[in-house]
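Lecture 7 notes: from sequence to structure.
We start with the chain below.
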Amino acid sequence: MEQVCGRPLGLKFNEVTCDLYIANAYFGLLVVRHNGGVAKQVAISAEGSHFHSLMLWTLIKTQELSILPILSLYSKDGMAYAIAMQTGDKTGRLLKYDPRTKEVTVLLRGLSFSNGVALSKDKDFVLVTETTTAKVTRYWLQGQKSQLSDTFTQLVGCPDNIQRNIHGEFWVAQNNCGRPELKVRPIRLNKEGKMVEELSENVGLVSEVQEKGNG
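Predicted C-alpha cells for the same chain:
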C-alpha cells in the first residue's frame, strides 16, 4: 500500500503561514494549507534527480523550507537503508525549497546516509547528521564561510536525528551502529560542537531526543 498511500517521514508546520509540510518517501514534498484539505505535491526532484527519502525543517524568519533527502540512489523499500549502511552510500543531499519561487536548490552533496537536520539558534548554519560516517556536518548559511561546510563533531556512535534546545545547544540521538559491544548514549553538544552532557540512563535504541522546559 505504500506505493499508493506513500510513507511520510517528516512533518513540519510553517509557523508563519500555518501550512503543514509533509516529507514523503514516495511523493516528495507535500503541503496541506492552513485550512486543511488534501495534501498537494510541491516538489519531487532537484537537478533531475528524484527525492527518495526526506526529512525537513523550516526557516521561520525567511519563510523558506529546507528539505533533506536521506537517499537518492536506492529504492524506497526497507532494504535501501541496509544497503546504504553496508556500502557507505554518499548520495545524500541537503536541499532548499522556496515556496515563493517554487524552486529547489541543492546546498550540499555527497552526504553519507544523512538522517537529521537542525538549524542554529542564530540561523547562521544548519547541522546534518551522517549515520554511516558517525559525524555531524555543518553547512554555513551566513557569514564569511557562507555556502561552505565542515565537520561540526565526530561521534563514537551512529547518529540518527538531531534537535536544538532553547539555549542553542543540540541533542544528538546516537546508537551503537549494530555493534552490541559499543556502549553509547544520546549526547548534548554546545554551539561549538563540544559534548557537554551524555544521557545518564541506558534507554536502548533512540531515534530522537527533545529537551522540554528550561533544560
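Points to note: The first strand starts at residue 8 and ends at 13. The CA atoms of residues 173 and 206 lie 6 Å apart.
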